[in-house]
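Pasting as-is:
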Amino acid sequence: MSNPIKIMLVEDQKLMRVGLKSLFEGQNEMEVALEAQSGKEAIEKFKLNKPDIVLMDIGLPDINGIEATKKILELNPRAKVIILTSHISEQEVLTSLQAGACAYVMKDINTDILKVIIKTIKDGAMWLDPQAVPILREKNCGIVPPRQMSRAMFKEQHSNLTQREYEVLKLVVDGKSNFEIAQELTISEHTAKAHVCNIIQKLVVDDRTQAAVKALKEGLV
């Protein structure tokens, strides 16, 4: 059995720290090994330890999470920092990525998706909340390719997905249940479930959550 992913949680609100930490209790895949309540504390603890992932809040009491991310990346350019925030602003999205963050994630994200994101970031991926993608496209930052190029690249890699499966996949990304997908597309719930199963198989993932993350990561939606 492989070692669990060691996470350093950087969050100044105790209630939020307790809630986030509870997500990883009782499992073997990942654990909160370190906690910090400020940017400076995060930097000092990062120096002394080697967490696999840093979950970083932006609004911290001394230096903010973006500045702390920059300092951590100066200490170790291979560090993997996930910005976990409660809102999206153009400046914070851009400066977070410029500082070296691997992901920009909203705090209201589905917990199962957050766990998948952590795994993919550990493996070297990058992830952006869908609300952040238009900001990068509008600014022409070169970080996220144009939508049509991304769609074409995704279809080239997964050309065995049918048009209907693409429609279902988009609704899966939106967090819709099989029942809601059926209502949206005017099909039976059994048919919706079959489409989801086919998508999971064709994308070579384990479940609908991983299918959604893969679709977002590869730029389909």
